[in-house]
Structure formats: C-alpha cells, structure tokens
C-alpha cells in the first residue's frame, strides 16, 4: 500500500474524462450539507429575546468564541474575517469530528482538500491585505525591508501555505490511518483510544489551521492598525508636549 | 500524485460555497440575533438607568419636599407656640387687669361704702350728741335762760358794725316788716328792748312781727329780705355736730390709712 492509496481521493465513485466524483468530494458535500442543514434548522426561529433554544445557544457560543478569537488576533472588528476563518474552522472540525462514525473518511485526510484550503488562504491573504492596505501598500510588503528580499518573501509565502496544507493533511491522514491499522491488528482497545486521540488531534488541527490563517490575514491587513497606533502615539506625544 | 488538481479545484469551489452558505444561514443570523439582544439589553439597561435616575430624582424631590414640609411644620409649630404664648400672656394680662379693675372697683365701692358708713356714723353720732344736748338744753330752758338768750342776742345786735350794718339797712329799706322768731314767748318788755336795739342798729322804728319757732333752741332770729340775724343754741349744736362729724371722719381716715399701709406691706412679699 503506497501513500497515494491511503488518500480518499483514490476512492472514485464516478468519472467522466478528467472529471471524477471521489470520496473526498462526496464526504465534503456531506459535511457541507450537515453544516448548512444544521445552521438552517438552528437559525430558523432565532430569538432575539432572553429565552434561547439549546441549539441557538450552542451556535451563539461557538460564533461568539470564534469572533472573540479573531478579534484578539486581528486586534480589530472580527466581522469581515468571521465567514472565512469561521468556515475554515467549522468545516475542518466537523470533518474530523465525524471520524468517529465507522466508514467515514475525513476529507481533510486528503492532501487535495488541505491544499485547496491552503490555496484559499493563500488567495485570501492578499485579498484581505489589499482591502486593508491598498494595492500598492500591500505589494510593498514583498520588498520589505529591501527589494532583494522579494524572492525570499514570495518563497516564505508559498512555503507557509504549503506547511499549512501538509500539516493538516499529515496529522489527519496519519491519525486516520493509524486507527485503521490498529483496528486490523488489535480490534477492540487500541483503536478506540487512538480514535479518541484522533478526535482531539482533529479539533486541535482545526483550531491551528484557522488561527494560522487568521494570523496570516492579520499580518497582511495590519497596516490599518499600525496607522491607528501611530495616530494614537502622535496624539499622546502632543498631549505630553502640551502638558 | 498525492494532489488531484480537479479535486483541489472542486474543494476550493466547495469551500467558497460553504462560506457563502454559512454566512447566509449561520453567521449573519446569529450575529444579528446577538446584536439585537445586545441592543435590547443595552436599551433595557438604558431604560433601567433612566428609571433609576428618574427614581433618584423623584426620591430627591420627595426628600426635598419632606424637608420643606418639616421646616414649614417646624416654623408653623414655632409660630403657633409663639402665638399661643403671646395669647396666653395677653389673656393673663387681661385677666390680671380685669382682676385689678375688679379689685379697684371693689376697693372703690368698699371705700365708698366705708366713707358712707363713716359719714353716716359720724352724722348719726353728731346728730345723736347734738340731739342729746338739744334735749338737755330744752329741759334746762326757763325764764332766766330765755332772758339770758335775749341778752346775748341784743349784745350781738349791738356788735354789728360797718358793712354788715349798711347791708342790713339797705335790706331793711326794701321790707315792710321785720320777722322776729323766738324759741320762747317774748313778753312786752322783751319785745320793746328788741325793738329799741333793732332801731338803734338799723335806724328808725322798724315794724316787727313776732312768731314762735320751736326749732330755735333757746334762740332768736331776725329776718330781713336776703339777710338773717340770729342767735340760738341750735347754731352751737350744729357747729358741735359738724365738728364731731369732721373729727370722726378724720379719725376713720387715719385708721384707713394705717390699714392700707399694712395691706401694702402684706402684698409686697407676694408680688416679689
């Protein structure tokens, strides 16, 4: 069994020319369906009052926690980043969480999925950066501190995106495969323990992926915050002079 | 190859769709609900603060009103006490004045009664003494006494001089006759002597008319218009009666003065 065989990409349900419907895509759809359906069901009858349903309360706790986390990292309003970063977390977390269901293969165990997510982050970072800094200011980042650093900066951007993809893929794939192997060798005790460990790892990886993505985005978008900081410092200095 | 680029593209699209779906069905709705709740809570807090402020204001106003009311009631109470005290003093003064006035009235009445009684007593005493003297003189009356009375009267006529004599003469010119009253019956000789004496006094021979008057004790009197020449014991007795009354009155007054001094001396410690 080669490393390619352990990816859910290899399980193809349907194909036509270059297009194919493999397990990664199907399981992704299932996760998407569950997330969307769950969200729709839970948010059908939202109450703005003081009495909340349990589902609404649960979702509010998750969304509020994500917002607070984003706000802490970005040091600014979390609203623009929440759909992107929050969806990264929820998708990865649910995909990993469903690993407790026998026969479920997390889509995140596919390097294609993690690569896709990393690619999205890779594209999202400049988009948010340009939104915050402006096009020129963002491009200047790549020639800092001097234009000689342009290749290094580009390489760093790519390498960190690659690391993002490979880290998630490696952790999830390894956990899944170790559990499968242990299931074959020792059918009862170890697989359950490893499965539990895999769940924990999956949650942590979801958190790490989302946080790292947010860190990258925040670093690209920090110019606004720097300006505000400079403005505050200038005001304080003026106040001291006057004082 | 580990990476299937079609799958990668599909996953990118799937992820973007999922972002859109979750934004539509999860984040926006949840955040809207949270924002609404926060706004609701903020509004409730604002309302509660406003109500608290209003309650505090109302409490302050009530406290102010209570203080003002207490001050007013205190002022009214003080004023009422002062008025009551003033009224009490006025009533006491009024009562004192009334009592004083009644006492003065009573004293005056008492003094009047006392003076009247003293006058009555003096008069009665004088009259009694004079009456007794009069009765004694009446009992003693006789020819010798009558003759002596005439002699005394004639001496008195002889003693009239100066202005009195001229006034008697002018009064006599207007009269037709002189009335001579006597306490006893005058005989012819006594009438003649009286006529001579009057003729010497008044000039000429005046016409005389003799009448008996029992009230004249041992005395005689000659009446001309507007004038009278008389002597009798009644004058002495009247003078004695008057002196007796005056002396008794003085004695009673001095006794009253002593009594008043003693009363004042008794009242002084009480007033102090």
TrEMBL record, chain B:
The chain crosses the membrane at residues 6-22. F(1)F(0) ATP synthase produces ATP from ADP in the presence of a proton or sodium gradient. F-type ATPases consist of two structural domains, F(1) containing the extramembraneous catalytic core and F(0) containing the membrane proton channel, linked together by a central stalk and a peripheral stalk. During catalysis, ATP synthesis in the catalytic domain of F(1) is coupled via a rotary mechanism of the central stalk subunits to proton translocation. Component of the F(0) channel, it forms part of the peripheral stalk, linking F(1) to F(0). The b'-subunit is a diverged and duplicated form of b found in plants and photosynthetic bacteria. InterPro entries: Alt_ATP_synth_F0_bsu, ATP_synth_b/b'su_bac/chlpt, ATP_synthase_B_chain, ATPase_OSCP/dsu. This is ATP synthase subunit b. Keywords: ATP synthesis, Cell membrane, CF(0), Hydrogen ion transport, Ion transport, Membrane, Transmembrane, Transmembrane helix, Transport. The gene is atpF. The keyword Cell membrane applies. It is found in: Cell membrane; Endomembrane system. It comes from Desulfoferula mesophila. Belongs to the ATPase B chain family. It holds the Pfam family ATP-synt_B.
